User: Fold this.
Amino acid sequence: MSLPDRSIDPRLLKAAKEVFLEKGFEMAQLSEICKKAGVTTGALYKRFSGKEELFCELVEDTIEGMRNYVSRIAESDLSTFTDQDIFDGFHMNVDVNTRWLKYLYDHKEGFTLLIKCASGTRYSSFHNNWTEKMNAIHYQFYLEAKGRGLAKKEISEKQMNVFSTAVWALFYKPFILDFTWEDMEKHAVLIADFINWHKALGIEKQGE
Assistant:
């Protein structure tokens, strides 16, 4: 039995990425990917089980980084946070927005595949699943703020979900619209001006 030729991986992945970005996963054909990569379908199947494994390979680094980001926050013990920490957790300033957009932009092709081209793959619900994860974090921060008497307004988890979905749209939509990095930097400023979690949740500025 011959061993898979791993030297063809970069060519296959490059070709698959180009085809998936152009046509989406469902419309992409393995035959087109193989032709673009200059390999046979037989050679592809010796290395990958099929089209979906190719797709998953292309987005795994992006997903892993995002999961790590969520895990670090979700596993935090909010009771150890100062009031200022809780306040800052809802502060979408320009620096925070820019760092998050920069991470996504550094993984632009993988992220675009996830939010625009993943229909038909195991990641077809990525957008909704990510919103749910972020909403759970937002709501835990809110409950901590509420328990400390910092948040004055009553917000249900469903209402928070609407807010979380709207905020997430501010970060993924620019990739669907193919913003340049210059556009992204300007967008980071606009997000900071547009979103005011503190006012929405009734959280007053610390120290005043």
